[in-house]
Amino acid sequence: AQTVTQSQPEMSVQEAETVTLSCTYDTSESDYYLFWYKQPPSRQMILVIRQEAYKQQNATENRFSVNFQKAAKSFSLKISDSQLGDAAMYFCAQPNFGNEKLTFGTGTRLTIIP
Amino acid sequence: DTEVTQTPKHLVMGMTNKKSLKCEQHMGHRAMYWYKQKAKKPPELMFVYSYEKLSINESVPSRFSPECPNSSLLNLHLHALQPEDSALYLCASSQDTSGGALSGELFFGEGSRLTVL
Lengths: 114, 117
Description:
The complex is a heterodimer. Chain A is mainly beta. Helices cover 0% and strands 52% of the residues of chain A. Chain A contains no helices and twelve strands. In chain A, the strands form three sheets. In chain A, strands 2, 5, 6, 10, 11 and 12 form a six-stranded mixed beta sheet that branches. A four-stranded antiparallel beta sheet of chain A has the order 3-9-8-7, with no helix packed on it. In chain A, strand 10 (88-95) and strand 11 form a beta hairpin. Chain B is mainly beta. Chain A binds chain B through residues 32-33, 35, 37, 42-47, 50, 89, 91, 95-102, 104-107, 109, and chain B through 4, 31, 33, 40-43, 45, 48, 50, 55-56, 90, 94, 97, 100-103, 105-106, 108-111.
């Protein structure tokens, strides 16, 4: 069974600073996808960024980027220039091979300090 | 239109009540999902419908009964629930999952917060 581990239950960062959220995963597949989802308080969960395992280049979406280390099975999310609107639960997720199931990590609650 | 709409937003029901949660999307997505989320926990998959057919049932108790009347609608019928079923119920949709592996984005609704008394 696939596992996704987020070892930081809570993180905080000063506004405008940079923060990195950690995620490790386990899979026997060679080609797969990895996702970071954001769930703000009382608002819907949205996709922040997606990484395809066969791509060497780390994915980037504006202030959000990933550090994908395939050999180490590590997939961390870096948020640059943190903003108050970045406060949320962040879930790392990996699709199960062969079906529509998405395995989520336990989540990291990010607080932005003004 | 990139929305997944869930109703009601809040629901309080007794253990003997029958109620339904509704979900609607108009993005042409052919896979729809029900997730259950407890406070400070990740979403737990309950059911997946792919092309209006139930493709995954994560051993959910029969007091939860899903229904997919058409490609845009997904219902979750609730009957004889227990207090521990109180949670946020999330609906999501995605493009068809040809090849079986989920490679694209899940679009989530805001959820229906259920309280069972």
